[in-house]
């Protein structure tokens, strides 16, 4: 029997809402959108510490590139390993396979990631100053 986790359930919720014609979110998109908020805060903290090259000029490329890499990475993982079919077959037809449950999982995932984002934002990160060699 395959072992599934909450990320798989969120993937299924996104894919089912995509399959039913809502076209608002896909499986990889549902997972990646949750990770986008903490990623933005971490990139902002790295920018404030001057650890990102090019500063503010290309900061949008960091966000877009990171989101795209995360989306493609999740998609490739699910498709290449065959996990997409296993997850879809396991959850399809269950009593919780309704639009209400699917959106509840997606919105709950977003709320959990926003809480993590707020916790990351409250943390002070301090690194030693750069030393010129």
Low-confidence stretches: none
Shape summary = elongated
Please report the total strand number as a whole number: 0
Beta-strand residue percentage: under 5%
Explain what this protein looks like in three dimensions.
It contains five helices and no strands. It is mainly alpha-helical. Helix 1 packs across helix 2, helix 2 runs antiparallel to helix 3 and helix 2 runs parallel beside helix 5. The mean pLDDT is 84.
Please supply descriptive tags for the structure shown above.
133 residues; single chain; mainly alpha; elongated
What is the fold's blueprint, element by element?
Blueprint: H1 6-19, H2 27-48, H3 59-80, H4 83-91, H5 99-122
Helix pairs in contact: 1-2, 1-4, 1-5, 2-3, 2-5
Task: Give a quick rundown of the structure.
The chain is mainly alpha-helical and 133 residues long. It has helices at residues 6-19, 27-48, 59-80, 83-91, 99-122.
């Amino acid at each position: 029997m395959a072992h599934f986790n909450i990320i798989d359930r969120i993937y299924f919720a996104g894919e089912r809402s995509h399959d039913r014609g809502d076209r608002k979110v896909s499986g990889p998109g549902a997972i990646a959108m949750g990770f986008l908020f903490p990623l933005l805060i971490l990139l902002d903290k790295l920018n404030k510490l001057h650890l990102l090259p090019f500063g503010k000029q290309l900061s949008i490329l960091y966000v877009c590139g990171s989101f795209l890499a995360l989306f493609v990475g999740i998609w490739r993982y699910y498709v290449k390993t065959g996990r997409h079919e296993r997850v879809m077959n396991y959850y399809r037809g269950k009593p919780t396979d309704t639009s209400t449950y699917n959106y509840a999982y997606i919105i709950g995932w977003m709320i959990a990631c926003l809480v993590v984002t707020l916790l990351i934002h409250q943390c002070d990160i301090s690194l030693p100053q750069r030393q010129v060699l």
